[in-house]
Write a structure and sequence with these properties.
The complex is a heterodimer. In chain A, strands 6-7-8-3-9-10 form a six-stranded mixed β-sheet, sandwiched between helices. Chain A has a four-stranded antiparallel β-sheet with strand order 2-1-4-5. In chain A, strands 12-13-11-14 form a four-stranded antiparallel β-sheet. In chain A, helix 3 (91-101) packs across helix 4 and helix 3 runs parallel beside helix 5. Chain A is 36% helix and 28% strand. Chain A has helices spanning 40-47, 69-74, 91-101, 109-119, 135-147, 165-178, 191-197, 215-223, 237-244, 271-280, 292-305; strands at residues 2-11, 14-24, 29-33, 55-60, 63-64, 76-79, 153-157, 183-188, 200-205, 208-214, 227-232, 249-255, 258-263, 285-290. Chain A has two domains: 2-214, 3-Layer(aba) Sandwich (Rossmann fold); 224-292, YebC, transcriptional regulation domain (Alpha-Beta Plaits, 2-Layer Sandwich), CATH 3.30.70. Chain B is mostly helical. Chain B has one domain (2-255). In chain B, 83% of the residues lie in helices and 0% in strands. Chain B is built from twelve helices and no strands. In chain B, helix 4 packs parallel to helix 8, helix 6 (110-131) crosses helix 8 and helix 6 crosses helix 12 (229-255). Chain B is globular and about 70 Å long. At the A-B interface, helix 2 and helix 3 of A face helix 1 and helix 5 of B. The structure holds adenosine-5'-diphosphate (ADP) and magnesium ion (MG).
């Protein structure tokens, strides 16, 4: 449903996202997790066609974001970081506008609006002016706007930020309920946020993907021992296989030219062996580093931030 | 094509309605009608006394010269002061409140968005003009004015107002600050209005160019009851170029 490869974005000289590659399949709810400034919003703005990328490819619902933006936009519902609500309008009028601009057919307009309003629990404020609503309700109006045309893909940028705990729980339940019918990407800088709603998470830091896994695996991995990253010129299946068969190595997962190597806990020192094998199999070692620390640091940052 | 028109209308309708949710539209329309009404009755009164005086000498005063032409001439000036208030928020506020993200990520093109904004303000000008239609009606009930100059003046006023609107939209797209957008719009419209003054002291080719660029120089013929196609083309190109530049500005805004 969503394919991203080598996506980069420069703001002037500043690299906001750095060759991101990932995929999201139909019906999945994926969390985009990373501290502030990691590049989550930037990635989402590119996927929704708000902003062009500097380099790389992205496709959503089978359409290339750069070549066919209108088709992508028809199939995407987007809740930006700030809900894009017109403060002077009533909720009902705003939803009417959202349905029209998303090209909901005339005969389905009423039912689409009613569905979105009901789903986001806005029934009681339908005739209120949005400017008079609380932050939580404005956020829901933003979410209702993203849902109204029943899009295949929902892109939600920090959907629960600034809400009170009760509202957070409601929105989380809502998002969970969308799984299956919709493919959802949501971003957050709070770890429990994604654990509560997502099946899979992509951890991003300083514009790079540092981990992508199901929630359980990721937590298990943290508890486990070391993780090394091996950057190579030409990864090949045979070589990867050879690496994963090394004593002490528990798994090797390739992500483009980067191999993420997990080490069995309590295992012996294997760094020499890994590099030796990589050289022997002709992959061409470019870089070899330990990932453990950075991932842990990020999680520490993410988990402690919620308390603030 | 059908979808294009629908998209433009969706945007125009929303913006048109939102004029009436803030006091700005009421203040602009109220002030406009007040000033126009005062000017109209003043020139009408003047016309009546002058006609009486000239009638003693066996001469007639043309109501077109005495009332109709000044009416629309004054309107062109009043619009210069008022229309920046109408256009200043169109994009500036969308940028400030980030609602522009909804527009850009909806399945509509930038051109449709800009045309929608333009037509919302154009519609407001039409409403204002429709309200002043009472003056010609008053004239027709008491005298027999020539309808030609009235209709051509209306067309000229619409075209000139469109130029103000398009400049206003251009500056609104450049900033998040409505007041800055409004001030720049007023300054620029005034500049294009007064540019012919500079022509007086310029060399002949430069004077021709400056005279051609002056917004007001293309207005006179409409008051005489004739539609001069170079003038129409000038106004339409002016609008086209401003809206095209708006497109460039918004497109580059997306890149940042
Ligand atoms: N319009 C912009 N101009 C310049 N730099 C920007 C702009 N938007 C974001 N950035 C920078 O790009 C990086 C990624 O930002 P962002 O995608 O908003 O991160 P996140 O949503 O993960 O907090 C940050 O370092 C931020 O400062
Ligand atoms: Mg962000």
């Amino acid at each position: 449903m969503i394919q991203v490869s080598n996506l980069s974005k420069l703001y002037g000289p500043r690299l906001a996202i750095d060759h991101l590659s990932f995929e999201v399949s139909k019906g999945e709810v994926v969390g985009f997790l990373g501290p502030n400034g990691a590049g989550k919003s930037t990635t989402m703005k590119i996927l929704t066609g708000f902003m062009p990328a500097s380099d790389g490819k992205a496709s959503v619902a089978g359409f290339d974001v750069f070549e066919n933006p209108l088709e992508v936009k028809k199939n995407v519902g987007y809740l930006p970081e700030t809900p894009p609500v017109y403060l002077e309008m009533t909720v009902g009028d705003y939803m009417d506008f959202a349905a029209r601009i998303h090209q909901v057919p005339k005969d389905k307009m009423n039912s689409a609006i009613n569905y979105a309003i009901e789903r986001t629990g806005l029934g009681s404020v339908r005739n209120r002016i949005i400017g008079n609503l609380s932050k939580g309700y404005r956020q829901r109006v933003g979410l209702a706007q993203a849902l109204v045309h029943n899009p295949l893909v929902l892109i939600l940028d920090e959907p629960t930020v600034g809400l009170d705990p009760k509202q957070i729980i409601e929105i989380r339940e809502l998002i969970k309920g969308l799984a299956g019918d919709h493919t959802v990407i949501l971003s957050s800088h709070i770890l429990p946020e994604v654990t509560a709603t997502c099946q899979r998470i992509i951890v991003i830091n300083r514009g790079k993907i540092v981990a992508t896994d199901t929630m359980d695996q990721l937590q298990a991995r943290l508890r486990k021992g070391l993780i090394y990253a091996l950057q190579v010129k030409n990864p090949n299946p045979a070589a990867i296989d050879a690496l994963s068969k090394l004593p002490g190595v528990s798994s090797v997962s390739p992500a483009g030219t980067k191999l993420v190597i997990e080490i069995k806990p309590g295992g012996s020192e294997v760094r020499d062996l890994i590099v030796e094998t990589a050289v022997k199999t002709g992959m061409g070692v470019l870089e070899f580093s330990s990932e453990k620390v950075s991932l842990e640091e990020i999680f520490l940052q993410l988990t402690t931030e919620e308390k603030v | 094509m059908n979808q294009t028109i629908r998209n433009i209308w969706t945007i125009a309708r929303r913006d048109f309605r939102s004029y009436f949710t803030s006091p700005v539209a009421y203040i602009v329309i109220g002030a406009f009608l007040g000033i126009m009404g005062w000017m109209f009755f003043y020139s009408l009164q003047h016309f009546v006394t002058e006609s009486a005086r000239f009638a003693q000498q066996g001469q007639k005063v043309s109501i077109t010269d005495a009332v109709v032409r000044p009416l629309y001439g004054n309107m062109a000036v009043i619009f210069l002061f008022m229309l920046p208030f109408v256009t200043m928020r169109l994009f500036a506020e969308e940028r400030k409140l980030q609602t522009i993200q909804l527009l850009i990520t909806s399945p509509v093109t930038l051109t449709e968005i800009i045309l929608g904004k333009f037509f919302s303000s154009f519609l407001l000008v039409c409403v204002m003009l429709a309200m002043t239609f009472i003056y010609p009606v008053v004239l027709f009930t008491s005298t027999t004015p020539d309808p030609g100059p009235i209709f051509t003046s209306l067309l000229g006023t619409l075209l000139l107002a469109s130029c103000y609107l398009s400049i206003g939209i251009l500056f609104s797209a450049m900033t998040e600050n409505q007041i800055v957008a409004g001030a720049l719009t007023f300054g620029t419209c005034l500049f294009f209005w007064l540019i012919s003054w500079a022509a007086m002291s310029a060399s002949s080719t430069a004077a021709d160019v400056l005279n051609y660029l002056s917004l007001i120089n293309h207005f006179g013929q409409f008051g005489q009851g004739s539609i001069n196609s170079p003038d129409v083309i000038f106004y339409l190109s002016f609008v086209g170029i401003s809206l095209f530049l708006t497109h460039r500005i918004l497109d580059s805004y997306r890149w940042r």
